[in-house]
Here is the input.
Amino acid sequence: MKSETETTSGQASEQTKKLFIKTYGCQMNVYDSERMAGLLKPLGYTQTAEPEDADLVILNTCHIREKAAEKVYSDLGRIKKNKERKEQSGGEMKVAVAGCVAQAEGAEITARAPIVDMVFGPQTYHRLPEMIARASRENGDVLETDFAVEEKFDTLSTDREIEGYSAFVTIQEGCDKFCTFCVVPYTRGEEVSRPVDAITAEVRMLAANGLREVTLLGQNVNAWHSAPPAGTAGDGWGLGELVRHLARIDGIERIRFTTSHPRDMDHGLMAALGEEPKLMPYLHLPVQAGSDKILKAMNRGHTADHYVRQIEEIRKARPDIAISGDFIVGFPGEGDDDFEATMQIVEAVGYASAFSFKYSRRPGTPGASMAKQVAEPLKTERLARLQALLEQQKQDFNKAQVGKVLPVLLEKKGRNPGQLVGRSPYLQAVHADLPERLLGQIVDLRIVDTLSNSLSAQALDDRIST
Here is the structure.
């Protein structure tokens, strides 16, 4: 849920309007951008890879990373020139800023960037067609940042067009945890779960269109809960029950979920990890720090020992599980002993992958005004040490796969001729020389080598590779 990406696909014809979407940040934003493109397709919008040719430009923003807003304003500066050129030639370009920066800084965006026609938060993009119509009728800016997650879930169609064999499906949004470093509760709102019937309908539709793997998305995905389907026993379902239910859909061979919170990791979900073979052995469970003092200051609601015991219970249920995590170094008040406690929890758990960052202040969050802010050079030094350890653990995990036979979902062509790329059960990219006819299949491959960020594999049978 971490790098900047551009969502660009398709070619516009003379009869269609051209849409350019730039997506910053997490998988949730990638999903939201896809749904925005789907909402606009009936209005005649086809995606383009060239922002200067677009009739509508949408920047779908993320507020998690440092200087997120500055990146948006920098991009808007370039888009302004494109818009001016298009208007000079008699055309029109509408510009929208969506997502979490829009939610947090909507009024400031309209003040600082007059070229922006629409500003809307992540819970209101389902009203995008209406906003475009209003922007066309009115001269003023359109600002939509009120929270309405239930309405968003109710409005979204379960009909989607997908490319490839894996897809994200949002099942939960928002956060009630209020970690002192995080803006998500202020930009995504309170925790809201999507009803099980709507999720099931969307996944069934995706499976009918060739989907093999689904990743269930949520800010706190394991906080998801819903009434069970009609005619099903039980008072309420958690994520474990949902996973077992979706696993019965024909065509769905793999299920993943992200991102989880330790406070919502219940025994039902742990049991599902051990008992449901379609649930992949990969768990992203952020701890953020190894010091109880810092965890308390972060308002995480759990201790380091609680987290480690959770990991132990999960590994008893699924011994081969790969653990991924998030870490923040240099949180206000972090001393040498606190940082060493983080290093110790990394050593104790052993991570297959992880994301780690220096703490940066987020306006409006409690952490921004805390005393004892850590000096930048010290944060840089600590992050380098932590990342070196995490990278070593990642490489050790990858090397441990060499010689093993892993089922790989082959998703796309590789960079080299005759090469396909897929994902292992542990979410590693896997490259192998295989015929294109195997795309979309799950094939047992022998891992023969590790690269910097992927694995190299070979077919078990020469007949498969020809």
Observations:
- The chain has three domains: 5-146, 151-397, 405-459.
- Residues 351 and 459 are 28 Å apart (CA to CA).
